[in-house]
């Protein structure tokens, strides 16, 4: 459609407005506000866009309620004032799409900065002002532009170079240092990333990072230096390309090649699991500065080239995101000091010390203490988790490791010269720096504490991939753990770029038979993956589509998903998938592995058929819908036991899974549900017995009050039990174990139920057919003794917020709905015979009647003891009153 359609749209809008009571009020000082929250491929002003057609999203503002976007105009410019769209100008594009709009101009060039802005027209055809100007930087889109070579030798590498072509206009460094690197330019660390690049299957993809170094370069002599660590690559190699443009129009390219020099640095040992040994006596002052004499340094060698394709790293880097002070220091033995961080974290400590040269200080990490106050490191298994610092003996020395990280709450310091002052140790929290975008709190303190513990566990397990744990000799991308926690992660953090990368990682392990692996990258576990683990591939793609409206993910991975489903289909025997290695992992009551596998087989097929429908692949849609129906019938035939009235072993998980995806025919549903409730309430005195798979779906299958009782339970097994026993991150097992073996105290997987806080307690969700929160559902959970709850999530359209509180007469619900979205609000009438619904002080519904005339409220209906309210964007305050 082109802009000529506007008047027509306007007329039909007026007619529609009259019919629905949709507001038409207009005044001079009201109207659409400049778009904000501009994103290019999920980032604000990103560096290193490695996509030919990046997508743009923006959030809209409007002074009036009930507004949608009628049209937009995007300008992409080579000029920072972005006056004209010399690169791309959409003109007035009639469309209500304000998220994931694909770039449609000519080919973007590599290594360039583009500027963009956007404005929109509302449904009254009123234009907004333009947004602020944003920018994005392209990476090396054309691999032929890579001139650099992979080099290696020792763990310090450097070269000097001269910039004498006049004033520098723009300079970028493209760098991948494997396993990890620290980049230094003229004596400064470049950027704030640590443990970079993110882990990938290196023979498929290697990620490089992009840094703007315009301000770090000097006219004249310069020096670039790189420290390398082994990381997950277990070896070292560097590729670096610096591209400098001068005001004069000249260009200079500095690359990693034979001209670089190398020598061993102060890091004499480094390993992700075991820690780092740093010998400060080996430091080489000035090595990363211009003017340094590297005559005695050795020549570098060309490295065995990693096989993977170089791609720009388009996820937030791992960073030190927080510094924490220890809460206490004890001295269990002479010369041994233990600091308690008060919180289980992932990262390391920064230590300061002064003392004689050669003093060797040892930092050992642990999640637990023995009753006598000594470190309990049994659950670290083979991970040494130990950093050593050897003093150079010059004044106050400060140290933090570079190429390792630990999962710990306690750190033991020994060998320290004298008694370490309380402030000589500080905790550094290190993980992928995803932005927190969600918030939740309510009147039940235990739930708030759980939310806190869930989030600590989740974020400290984001290390370029979602890991299972952060402390022991594992820290793998177990796919089961990844899909179970993904939805709750997406409600709390901006996870879009992170999971886009991880989905690519999954695709990287897929073989030509469609098989994927239990862990990604594949180190542990098996190929083919346990079906309850492999399901992460379809599941994560689907969540990306649901949460962020990411259609590109489901398009790009469609063939991979289909190949995966076809593989498991080939393994199934009469629609039953028997193979299973872990099933309902860590459960208290066992569920047949084949039941769990067949459940996920059905789920995968269902996701694939939904995606096929969305993408208009009609034949596949029909094939997989039919296959889904067949699996559904077979599941029931195979696992339902008419004697018990339950599925499988009649365990909670067996019945939860059957109920969750509606695998039970209607006539037995009541019985199955009854079995589940009986088991929870009477057999187990209001406790669960589920493993990780059943737990995720449990609260969505049972009613609010029972879910509330289970989630606020404090005796074993429950989350409350963990918290009362001092957990600051979730345990791997329901049991309180402190011995050796599989017993991590930071496993985020059981925090999957964190979705319930948002969806069921606060009540923010979206319609079945909505994606990206275009059609919001609000259904506050006024149950049990909850007095209030509030929460907020950030969709690409903007923030969705709900706060509710019980009042003497009923309740009050405050809402905020982004422009360009609509919402359906479900409010119970709480047994009132004559419910009166007030909004902002005026009645909107009374005695069975919807009173029109309030901006943004399109309809109120009373159905099945609840009021169903249709609203548009804006802020609202609803109150329920009446007798
Ligand atoms: C991991 C789990 C993982 C499991 C597979 C464990 O070692 O820590 O979280 O999902 O293996 O069963």
Structural description of this entry:
β28 (368-369) and β29 (375-376) form a beta hairpin. The strands form 10 sheets. Strands 19, 20, 24, 25, 26, 27, 30, 31, 32 and 33 form a 10-stranded mixed sheet that branches. The chain is α+β, with helices and mostly antiparallel strands and 883 residues long. Residues 1-28 have low confidence and may be disordered. The chain is 23% helix and 31% strand. The longest helix has 22 residues, at 593-614. It is built from 16 helices and 48 strands. Bound molecules: beta-D-glucopyranose (BGC). Beta-D-glucopyranose (BGC) binds at residues 468-469, 474, 478, 480-481, 582, 585, 742, 747, 749.
Keywords:
single chain, 48 strands, 16 helices, eight-stranded antiparallel beta sheet, ten-stranded mixed beta sheet, binds beta-D-glucopyranose, 883 residues, alpha+beta
Largest sheet: 10 strands, mixed
User: Pairing-aware structural class of the strands and helices?
Assistant: alpha+beta
The whole-angstrom Rg is: 29 Å
Silhouette: globular
Kindly report the average pLDDT value.
Answer: 95
Number of strands: 48
What is the first-to-last residue Cα distance?
A: 51 Å
User: What molecules are bound to this protein?
Assistant: beta-D-glucopyranose
> Beta-strand percentage?
25-35%
Number of distinct helices: 16
> Helicity, in percent?
10-25%
Low-confidence sequence ranges = 1-28
What secondary-structure arrangement, pairings included, does this model have?
Elements: H1 6-20, E1 32-40, E2 55-62, E3 69-77, E4 88-89, E5 93-94, E6 101-102, E7 113-122, E8 134-137, E9 151-152, E10 156-163, E11 168-178, E12 180-185, E13 188-189, E14 205-212, E15 220-229, E16 237-246, E17 251-255, E18 261-263, E19 267-271, E20 275-279, E21 298-299, E22 301-302, E23 309-312, E24 318-324, E25 328-333, E26 336-353, E27 360-366, E28 368-369, E29 375-376, E30 386-390, E31 397-399, E32 406-414, E33 425-432, E34 439-442, H2 445-459, H3 479-492, H4 496-509, H5 531-534, H6 536-548, H7 551-556, H8 558-571, H9 593-614, H10 618-639, E35 640-641, E36 646-647, H11 652-660, H12 666-683, H13 692-701, H14 704-711, H15 719-724, H16 754-762, E37 764-766, E38 775-778, E39 788-795, E40 798-806, E41 811-817, E42 822-828, E43 835-839, E44 842-846, E45 849-850, E46 857-863, E47 866-871, E48 874-882
Helix pairs in contact: 3-6, 4-6, 8-9, 9-10, 11-12, 11-13
């Amino acid at each position: 459609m082109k802009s000529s359609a506007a008047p027509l749209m306007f007329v039909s809008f007026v007619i529609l407005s009259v019919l629905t009571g949709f507001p038409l009020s207009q005044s001079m000082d009201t109207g659409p506000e400049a778009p904000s929250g501009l994103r290019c491929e999920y980032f604000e002003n990103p560096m290193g866009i490695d996509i030919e057609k990046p997508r743009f999203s923006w959030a809209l503002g409007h002074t009036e309620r009930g507004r949608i976007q009628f049209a937009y105009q995007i300008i992409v410019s080579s000029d920072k004032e972005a006056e004209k769209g010399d690169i791309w100008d959409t003109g007035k594009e009639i469309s209500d799409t304000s998220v994931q709009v694909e770039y449609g101009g000519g080919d973007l060039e590599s290594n360039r900065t583009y500027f963009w802005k956007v404005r929109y027209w509302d449904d009254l055809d009123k234009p907004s002002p333009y947004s602020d100007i944003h920018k994005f930087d392209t990476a090396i889109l054309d691999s032929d532009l890579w001139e650099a070579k992979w080099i290696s030798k020792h763990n310090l590498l450097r070269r000097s170079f001269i910039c004498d072509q006049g004033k520098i206009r723009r300079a970028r460094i493209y760098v991948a240092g494997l396993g990890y690197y620290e980049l230094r330019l003229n004596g400064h660390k470049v950027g704030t990333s640590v443990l970079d690049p993110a882990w990938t299957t290196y023979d498929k993809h290697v990620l490089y990072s992009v840094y703007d170094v315009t301000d770090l370069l000097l006219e004249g002599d310069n020096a670039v230096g790189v420290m390398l660590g082994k990381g997950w690559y277990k070896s070292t190699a560097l590729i670096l390309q610096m591209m400098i443009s001068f005001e004069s129009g000249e260009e200079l390219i500095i690359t990693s090649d034979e001209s670089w020099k190398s020598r061993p640095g102060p890091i004499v040992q480094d390993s992700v699991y075991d820690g780092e040994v740093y010998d400060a006596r080996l430091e080489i002052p000035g090595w990363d500065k211009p003017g340094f004499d590297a005559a005695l340094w050795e020549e570098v060698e060309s490295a065995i080239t990693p096989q993977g394709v170089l791609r720009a790293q388009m996820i937030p880097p791992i960073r030190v995101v927080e510094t924490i002070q220890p809460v206490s220091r004890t001295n269990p033995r002479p010369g041994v000091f233990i600091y308690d961080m008060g919180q289980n974290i992932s990262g390391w400590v920064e230590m300061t010390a002064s003392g004689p040269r050669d003093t060797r200080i040892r930092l050992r990490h642990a999640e637990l203490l023995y009753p006598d106050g000594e470190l309990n490191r049994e659950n670290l298994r083979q991970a040494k988790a130990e950093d050593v610092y050897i003093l150079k003996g010059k004044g106050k020395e400060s140290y933090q490791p570079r190429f390792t990280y630990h999962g710990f709450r306690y750190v033991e310091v020994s060998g320290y010269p004298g008694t370490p002052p309380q402030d000589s140790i500080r905790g550094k929290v290190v993980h992928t720096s995803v932005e927190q975008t969600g918030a939740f709190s309510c009147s039940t303190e235990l739930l708030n504490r759980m939310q806190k513990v869930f989030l600590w566990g989740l974020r400290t397990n984001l290390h370029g991939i979602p890991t299972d744990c952060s402390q022991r000799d594992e820290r793998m991308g177990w796919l089961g753990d990844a899909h179970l926690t993904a939805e709750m992660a997406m409600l709390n953090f901006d996870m879009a770029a992170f999971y886009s990368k991880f989905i690519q990682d999954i695709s990287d392990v897929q073989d030509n038979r469609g098989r994927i692996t239990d862990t990604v990258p594949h180190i542990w576990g098996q190929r083919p993956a346990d079906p309850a683990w492999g399901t992460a591939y379809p599941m994560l793609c689907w969540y990306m589509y649901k949460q962020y409206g990411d259609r590109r993910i489901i398009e790009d991975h469609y063939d991979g998903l289909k190949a995966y489903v076809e593989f498991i289909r080939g393994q199934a025997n009469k629609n039953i998938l028997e193979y299973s290695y872990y099933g309902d992992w860590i459960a208290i009551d066992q569920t047949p592995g084949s039941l769990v596998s067949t459940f996920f087989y059905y789920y995968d097929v269902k996701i694939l058929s939904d995606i096929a429908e969305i993408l208009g692949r009609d034949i596949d849609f029909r094939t997989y819908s039919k296959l889904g129906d067949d699996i559904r019938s077979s599941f029931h035939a195979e696992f339902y036991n008419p004697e018990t009235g339950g599925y499988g072993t009649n365990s909670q998980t067996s019945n939860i899974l059957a109920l969750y995806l509606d695998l039970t025919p209607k006539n037995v549903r009541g019985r199955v549900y009854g079995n589940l409730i009986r088991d929870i309430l009477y057999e187990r005195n209001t406790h669960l017995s589920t493993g990780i798979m059943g737990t995720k779906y449990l609260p969505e299958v049972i009613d609010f009050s029972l879910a509330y009782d289970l989630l606020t339970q404090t005796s074993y097994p429950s989350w409350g039990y963990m918290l009362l026993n001092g957990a600051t991150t979730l345990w791997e097992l329901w049991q309180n174990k402190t011995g050796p073996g599989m017993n991590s105290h930071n496993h985020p997987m059981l925090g999957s139920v964190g979705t319930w806080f948002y969806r069921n307690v606060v009540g923010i969700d979206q319609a079945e057919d909505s994606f990206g929160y275009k059609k919001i559902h609000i259904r506050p959970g006024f149950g049990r003794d909850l007095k209030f709850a509030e929460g907020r999530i950030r969709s690409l359209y903007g923030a969705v917020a709900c706060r509710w509180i019980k009042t003497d007469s009923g309740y009050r619900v405050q809402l905020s709905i982004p422009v360009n979205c609509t919402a359906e609000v479900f409010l119970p009438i709480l047994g009132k015979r004559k419910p009166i619904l007030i909004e902002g002080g005026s009645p909107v519904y009374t005695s069975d009647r919807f009173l029109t005339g309030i901006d943004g409220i399109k309809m109120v209906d009373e159905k099945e003891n609840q009021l169903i309210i249709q609203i548009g964007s804006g802020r609202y305050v609803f109150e329920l009153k009446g007798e």
